[in-house]
Amino acid sequence: MPHLELRDVRAGYGALEVLRGVSLAVDRGEVVALVGPSGSGKSTVLRVLMGLTPLSAGQVSIDGRPVDFRSRGELRALRDRMAIVFQQYNLFQNMTVMGNVTLAPLRIKRWPRAEVEAEARALLAKVGLAGREDAYPDELSGGQQQRVAIARALALRPEILLLDEVTSALDPELVNEVLDTIRTLAAEGMTMLIVSHEMGFVREIADRVVMMDAGEVIEAGPPAEILDNPRTERARRFFGKVLRH
Ligand SMILES: Nc1ncnc2c1ncn2[C@@H]1O[C@H](COP(=O)(O)OP(=O)(O)O)[C@@H](O)[C@H]1O
Ligand SMILES: [Mg+2]
């Protein structure tokens, strides 16, 4: 049974239907890469999963149990199981690294401070930022700030991590340190749904690739199959463009 499953999900913004029947599944411990042209609906899939964009039809299930998005309790439970990191890391500039990572666990979860701080230190070490607890965001590079954002997401102890183009805003020489962090999480068995245009990285890290175009899944399968032998003309055209970079 998949850890996370979308079945025939439709969603949009007002009269604009953006997801036109999306089905995909992520198994426990699996890394699934969501790829496709800009505007194809990748971010909207993640927004639906965080309960930020309502679905108009279809179903999202966790461990085989359909989520009732009308129930506030179920929505809260869903959000508790996921965490999302965006392209723009949006750290609080007036707070230290430690403050950023511990804010939600302390204020929203009300978990004990000693435990939260110990966990934050461990997470910062994992993302390669041991000893930078007292730094402020503007003292860090973009890659370091994005790694703080990943530690902040992990501090909420999610079961599933959603990453939306987390390296797209970074200078090229800073991309790899963030990819290294994601590699570490994958090796530890974190379930992840990753939107990325870094096709080399997708090929290396993804168990499966799901390609979207115009609000639909048009191909899904192992990276080698999808990236090297796409079945559809639309996928061939897309990979022809991105793989040349
Ligand atoms: N908040 C919004 N309001 C209206 N339209 C939106 C909004 N967010 C995204 N869209 C539209 O939905 C479509 C899919 O967007 P998105 O899911 O962000 O695609 P992707 O992440 O694949 O680039 C685009 O046409 C975009 O303009
Ligand atoms: Mg997007």
Measured as a percent range, the helix fraction is: 25-40%
Number of beta-strand segments: 10
Average pLDDT confidence is 95
Number of domains: 1
Gyration radius, in Å: 18 Å
- Ligands: adenosine-5'-diphosphate, magnesium ion
Dominant shape: globular
Strand order of the largest sheet: 6-7-8-3-9-10
Range of strand content: 25-35%
What's the CATH H-level homologous superfamily?
P-loop containing nucleotide triphosphate hydrolases
What would you say the CATH architecture is? 3-Layer(aba) Sandwich
Query: How many helices does DSSP assign?
Result: 9
What is the CATH fold-level name? Answer: Rossmann fold
Secondary structural class: alpha/beta
Q: Give the terminus-to-terminus CA distance.
A: 37 Å
CATH class descriptor name? Alpha Beta
Secondary-structure element string: EEEHEEHEHHHEHEHEEHH
What summary fits the major beta sheet?
6 strands, mixed
Q: Low-confidence parts, pLDDT < 50 over ≥5 residues?
A: none
